[in-house]
Input
Amino acid sequence: MGKNVLIISASPRSGSNSHLLAKEFGKGAKEAGNETEIISLKDKDIRFCRGCFACQKTQRCVIRDDADLIEQMMEKADVLVFATPIYYYEMSGQMKTMLDRGNPLYTTDYAFRDVYLIAAAAEDEEHVWQRAKSGLEGWIECFPKARLAGCVFGGGVTEEKEVLGSTAMEKAYEMGKNI
Output
């Protein structure tokens, strides 16, 4: 039986390189017999965490917006995949806000064990995406049953759809296929 894979794409652009990599990961995961769903945070109503910690008692955020619904989907997923463009050597604000809004998960019996990072950036050096990886690892550390299972980085891409045909696309597909 396949896994339930939730892919969260955090780019604000249509046709973004990180979103295309996320779709390729999803294609590989689906072909391997897994249930996949891709959610784009673009145009979603996602407000900032208020730091009230009410969710620690209720397992649900008091803010009723799209992040509340996405967080509930995250709880049930066996595999989480976060795709982000790299801005100023870090994950996008949209991704960071969604991670913060995942706070209700902390006291639940969340299903996810494997978490993946997909990133794309204009620069292509290996250090470019490391802070985004480190930030996600910090979030994962709060969930002892979970681990960072893999990363795909598509560097040297600026314009929309520039990642198409790159080795990063192949890597994303293969990683999805092998979850």
Q: What stands out?
A: The chain has a mean pLDDT of 97. The first strand starts at residue 4 and ends at 9.
